Automatic annotation (TrEMBL):
Originating gene: Phospho2
Binding site for substrate: D19, D99
InterPro entries found in the cross-reference section: HAD-like_sf, HAD_hydro_PyrdxlP_Pase-like, HAD_sf, Pase_PHOSPHO-typ
One Gene Ontology term of the molecular function aspect: metal ion binding
Gene3D superfamilies per record: HAD superfamily/HAD-like
Protein name: PHOP2 phosphatase
Family according to the record: Belongs to the HAD-like hydrolase superfamily. PHOSPHO family.
Species per Swiss-Prot/TrEMBL record: Promerops cafer (Cape sugarbird)
Active-site positions on this chain: D8, D10
Residues at which Mg(2+) binds: D8, D10, D179
SUPFAM superfamilies on file: HAD-like
Necessary cofactors: Mg(2+)
Length: 241
């Protein structure tokens, strides 16, 4: 009996978008209009690359960024949930699949001492250059027309499960916890025995209910959450069964 918990990061583990939160470091806590309007759909990573150049050009250093990022609040109930998972690691494997980046997620999880809860983090690789600028790259290349070009979460999940099977690990159930439009692709890959947990009032919940209305519902069970305590209640029931 082992369960796989798959978490998105922004608006799921933390109650904000880490990429937009970093703008608090910018002069006057905002970006120039030209930069803000330079985003093109599907090219978020490139846009964030330009934001990081702007911050670097304005002398914003790593420690200031880190201080700012570690003030992001966790979602309601999330600290309790992650504590519970940490105490029951023999039952749960736990991964993050996120369109944020390695530097931000690492800072936030380590500051709250939650990095040991997660077995792996799949997100865009980021690092500081020799000149002190933060740089970010695409996580991978893929052929999925539904996903942003830097990350298909279904591909990540499928490859992770294949690798685990090679190690002799299979899961009784996958629990997928997310909020965004880019979480729909992996949710559609889940089986009848799995469960999707979309955050109430966010894009993923809306997209799942649109599919149900058009009579092409997702295969897995769906349980909506508004506080991570809802997720913890479900996991407690699961391990009692």
């Amino acid at each position: 009996m082992k369960f796989l918990l798959v978490f998105d990061f922004d608006h799921t583990i933390i109650d904000e978008n880490s990429d937009t939160w970093i703008v608090k470091c910018a002069p006057e806590r905002k970006l120039p209009n030209g930069l803000r309007n330079s985003y093109q759909p599907g090219c978020w990573t490139e846009y964030m690359g330009r934001v990081f150049v702007y911050l670097g050009d304005n002398g914003i250093k790593e420690d200031e960024m880190k201080r700012t990022m570690t003030t992001i609040p966790f979602t309601a109930g999330m600290i309790d949930l992650l504590g519970f998972i940490g105490e029951n690691k023999e039952l749960f494997d736990c991964i993050i699949v996120s369109d944020s980046n390695t530097v931000f997620i690492d800072w936030i999880l380590k500051a709250a001492d939650f990095h040991k809860v997660f077995d792996e983090v799949f997100t865009n690789p980021a690092a500081f250059s020799s000149t002190g600028y933060l740089t970010v790259q695409h996580f991978h290349a893929h052929r999925c027309a539904k996903c942003p070009k830097n990350l298909c979460k279904r591909k990540v999940l499928k490859e992770f499960l294949d690798k685990q099977l090679e190690r002799g690990v299979s899961y009784t159930q996958i629990v997928y916890i997310g909020d965004g439009g880019n979480d729909l692709c992996p949710v559609m890959f889940l089986k009848k025995t799995d469960i999707a947990m979309p955050r109430q009032g966010y894009t993923l919940e809306k997209k799942i209910s649109q599919l149900a209305q058009s009579l092409s519902p997702v295969q897995c069970s769906v349980l909506v959450w508004s506080s991570a305590i809802d997720i913890m209640s479900y996991l407690k029931r699961l391990i009692k069964e």
